[in-house]
Amino acid sequence: MITPSGEALVRDHTVYSCVMGSRAFGLATDGSDTDLRGVYLAPTPLFWRFDKPPAHVEGPADEQFSWELERFCELALRANPNVLECLHSPLVERTDATGRELLSLRGAFLSRQAHGTFVRYALGQRKKLEADVRLHGAPRWKHAMHLLRLLTSGRDLLRTGELTIEVGAAREGLLAVKRGEVPWPEVERRMARLAEENDAAATASPLPAEPDRARIEDFLIRARRASALAWEGSAG
After folding, report:
1. How far apart, in whole angstroms, are the C-alpha atoms of residue 72 and residue 75?
2. pLDDT tens across 158-202, in order?
């Protein structure tokens, strides 16, 4: 079996792909990029070799990034915000039977662990914004907007048990931040309030303490087994 390139893995073995970024969040404006994200299932025989298939692939299109299914599941089980949001994009581009089952398991990945990962990620981004203010007198406003969006999304996830990434009625207020129309001290105040609301929501969240790792592992094993059987059938 010839080892396919990363581009071929994405082209021939993608099980799920979607549009992310501003277009998925409902924050797109003229000139917004189209960020593509996807999940591919590398053929099982590739894992029988010393050289394993890549865990992720950049490209082949601009602003395109894909994960191998196992790596994607690992990150989602750890409540990685970027990966969890991919499973909830309203702009699905491509899906097959494996991808549809992955989407049906979205709830199994969700847990109160999201409190730590969403807030920790936001804290790291806030430190970068504060460094920009010290160095340049102003933050990168686009990043400030997305930080507020992320904190809001995390809070609502903890409150409701459901992850919604579209900003809805909050669009104009967030775009005002992106345009630099909201003073930085006010943005800081909103960030602090949202962080506190995340903490409060975590104490009474309907989410389970841990994701359903066994259910996800069963799905992954079945996907790997089906891939191996398909390869044996084609080889025979």
Report:
1. 5
2. 999 999 999 999 999 999 999 999 999 999 999 999 999 999 999
- Cis omega before residue 60 (within 30°)? yes
Q: Distance between CA atoms of 182 and 172, rounded to whole angstroms? A: 12
Question: What is the 3 state secondary structure string of 3-71?
Answer: CCCHHHHHHHHEEEEEEECHHHHCCCCCCCCCEEEEEECCCHHHHHCCCCCCCEEECCCCCEEEEEHHH
Could you tell me the residue ranges of all domains in the chain?
6-109+212-235, 113-203
Q: Give residue 231's pLDDT.
A: 79
Query: Which one-letter DSSP state was computed for residue 2?
Result: P
Q: Is the whole model's pTM more than 0.90, yes or no?
A: yes
Q: Please determine, looking at this structure, whether the domain spanning 6-109+212-235 carries the CATH number 1.10.1060.
A: no
